[in-house]
Amino acid sequence: MSSIGKSINQFIIEQQLSHAGSGTDDLSGLLADIASACKKIAHLVSRSAIIGIGGASESENVQGEVQKKLDIITNDVMVEHLNCHGYLAAMVSEEIEDIIQIPEQLPKGKYLIAFDPLDGSSNIDINLSVGTIFSILRCPQGVTQPTLEDFMQAGTEQVCAGFCVYGPTTMMILTTGDGVNGFTLDRDIGEFVLTHPKMTIPEDTAEFAVNISNQRFWETPVKSYIEECIQGIDGEREKNFNMRWVASMVSEVYRVLTRGGIFLYPLETKSTSPNGKLRLMYEASPMSFIVEQAGGVSSTGYQRIMDIKPTDLHQRVPVILGSKNEVERVIGYHEEG
Ligand code: P6P
Fold first, then answer.
1. Is there a shared CATH topology between the 8-196 domain and the 207-336 domain?
2. Of the ranges 3-7, 48-52, 260-264, which is most confident?
3. Are 204 and 325 in contact (CB under 8 A)?
4. Backbone angles phi, psi at 112, to 5 degrees
5. Which one of 64, 202, 305, 330 has the lowest number of neighbouring Cβ atoms within 10 Å?
6. Contact between 176 and 27 (Cβ < 8 Å)
7. Any ligand 1 atom below 6 A from CB of 268
8. In what order do the strands lie in the sheet with 297-299?
């Protein structure tokens, strides 16, 4: 029988039954809590102008970025939904400088989570898609007050990664290491239902995504690659390329998952963000897990992103991800120097 239309909770339980004994029972509970939080966020995002929670707040986050009101509100939604059922030992959020410990009076669990509650929030006020990105790690045995060191795990240690994109439809994209599946929020029943089983990224593409206004800051390999894409058949390439830039990583990655593409936020020579803009623990690492599970490649240009062991909660890394043959071409240019 087709799995299309199966609810996310049913799907996760079946997935964990297929890994019976792998101790993933709490994982399905944690994912159900994440799905509930994302449904609440989808509701708030769609009504932000109506209930007056659009626009900027008066505060800045740890990144020194002016926080949108919804950045703060959605962070609180995630924390409130995730800290009460005893699945987590602690959390990390893009919006909060330090580790978010589970309150003393609440039960603690065996997982750690890092999330960006509202990625691409600069798009909120112009009615473009935004999203929530999360990465789930195991908490070291017996640790009930996780420290920085407990979170410093390479992307290969992730148990699960996912993102929710709040667009024309609200979708949850998920991997637990057994492929990538897409679930669409059916508002009539208030459930995410399976609509995109076993998503795979085409190995080739003719579509690149980069913020070209930063071109003067890129290293030569990226400059050469993008120039080739722009030149198309008038240059070295056998095809012409198209360009997209939504300024919302969840939308770019979802597009890559559905029709292929290459997304780049590379190293930059400007001092303000030499390692590019994207954060390792709750953007690059979970998205790399998803991309690799869908048959794509994700690299800094110099190394596989999934292999990077963080040294800081909010560490930034360059990101080049998407269709295997194009990303490997860019990696080749880096190797040539
Ligand atoms: P730029 C959103 O702020 C984000 O972190 C990603 O979602 C997105 O890909 C990128 O930054 C957009 O960067 O340079 O276009 O503002």
1. no
2. 260-264
3. yes
4. -120, 150
5. 64
6. yes
7. no
8. 242-243, 207-209, 262-265, 319-322, 297-299
Q: Is the CB of 211 under 6 A from ligand 1?
A: yes
Q: How far is the CA of 120 from the centre of ligand 1 (A)?
A: 6
Residue nearest to atom 4 of ligand 1 (CA): 120
Q: Does domain 207-336 sit in CATH 3.40.50.880?
A: no
- Residue 16's pLDDT band (cuts 50, 70, 90): low
Q: Does 93 count as an annotated binding residue?
A: no
CATH no. for 8-196? 3.30.540.10
CB 248 near ligand 1, within 6 Å: yes
Contacts of 163 (CB under 8 A, 6+ apart): 119, 131, 132, 133, 134, 172, 173, 250, 253, 254, 286, 287, 290
318 CB under 6 A from ligand 1?
Answer: no
Q: What is the ipTM of this complex?
A: 0.98
Written as six digits, the tokens of 116 are 């960006």
- Residue 122 assigned ligand-binding role: yes
User: How far is the centre of ligand 1, averaged over its atoms, from the C-alpha of 247 (Å)?
Assistant: 5
Which of 208, 252, 277 best tests ligand 1's pocket when mutated (most atoms within 8 Å of CB)?
277
- The answer to whether 116 is annotated as binding is yes
Question: From residue 288, how far is each of 147, 203, 206, 277, 312 by CA, in Å?
Answer: 24, 15, 20, 15, 18
Pick from 119, 210, 251 the residue to mutate for probing ligand 1's pocket: most ligand atoms within 8 Å of its CB: 119
Lowest-confidence pick of 14-23, 172-181, 214-223, 268-277: 14-23
pLDDT tens across 234-250, in order? 999 999 999 999 999 99
Mean pLDDT of 44-48: 93
Residue pair 161/177 in contact (Cβ under 8 Å)? The answer is: no
The mean pLDDT of the chain is 92
Q: Annotation-wise, does 121 bind a ligand?
A: yes
Q: Are 157 and 166 in contact (CB under 8 A)?
A: no
Atom of ligand 1 nearest to the CA of 265: 9
Look at ligand 1, atom 13, and give the residue with the nearest C-alpha.
247
